[in-house]
Amino acid sequence: MSKKKLDHLGVSAFCESMAMMVHSGIQTDEAIALLQTEKHGTGGILEQGLAIAKEKVDEGATLYDALNASGIFPEYALDMINVGESSGHLENILFRLSKYYAEQKTISEKLRNAVIYPAVMLVLVIAVLTVLLTLVLPAFTDVYNTLTGSLAASNYRYVYLAYVFCWIALIAMIILAVLLICGLIMWKTGHRETVEKLISKNRLCASILESMAMFRFTSALATFLASGELQDDAVKKSIPMTGYAPLEAKLERCLSRMSEGHSFAQAAYDEELFEPVYGRMLLAGERSGNIESVLERLAGLLEERAVHQVDRLVGIVDPLLSGILMVSVGLSLLSVMLPLIGIMNSVG
Q1: Where in the chain are the domains?
Q2: Distance from C-alpha of 271 to C-alpha of 217, rounded to nearest angstrom
Q3: Is CATH 1.20.81.30 what the domain over 103-348 is classified as, yes or no?
Q4: For residue range 248-258, what is the model confidence (pLDDT) as tens digits?
Q5: DSSP secondary structure string, 224-281?
Q6: Are residues 162 and 336 in contact, defined by beta-carbon separation less than 8 angstroms?
Q7: Averaged pLDDT for residues 236-245
């Protein structure tokens, strides 16, 4: 079993290809063999996983058991394929999974860019401030120290003001960089919930996390319902997909209301799971028998909202770091130029 997992794009491509083959009436073993041929000789994760899956299928295993044995597919995809096989909706489920993981790829890239670009700017600010404090300002200070007799004391103090500002800015940027690195390490080592609690103190960050979690839940719920699952079971199975504790608590309350006889749409509206306009859309969709299509529409809206919020966060952080960089450089240049102007005036 492979220890590495396919990325979102790889899962999306596999599910779409598999769905098209199922739609064409190609048997599972033949479909897997054809997918192996497409990547013959690459020796990649997918090729290795499909080789294991092909062996299992030849032994009579189901597609779910074969893909599970390969160890390269995420748990959610495997669960949905299992549901699709048992309910006879495999083709529909595979197409939905392809769309879901393609959307996940888009959001993941947005989030990665939202972290990488400010991180690069942060490193640049730290580098520039370090150069100013270790090379530029000391060089001018040494020159001015040899000319103290002809340099006004009031002008000379400008250099020290630049030192103070740059040191403060450098310390603040280093602390920010350390916090970012610690956060990433904690996120990667299983302390994701702790990191989420910390960044959720910022309203915009909390809104981004909630929008992404709602998107994952809504997409999963629509897929489960399309596979023929009962509402209660579909909601219960979709809750772990959120990966966000505050939202999971709301969904558990919705599930409790559903156990009392309420429908999901009504329970979600009562618990204010969605914004009022979206809640009414869901109620109308359920009463008209189109809840699946409404959930898909809501998933698209939530994805757009999450992407917009990520862009907004980048739009705030980027100018802030750029402003600190420009102010630091500008203040440093001004502080060393003012004494120089005083020297020129005294010489003139």
Answers
A1: 8-73, 103-348
A2: 15
A3: yes
A4: 888 888 888 88
A5: HHHTT--HHHHHHHHGGGS--HHHHHHHHHHHHHHHTT--HHHHHHHTT-S-HHHHHH
A6: yes
A7: 81
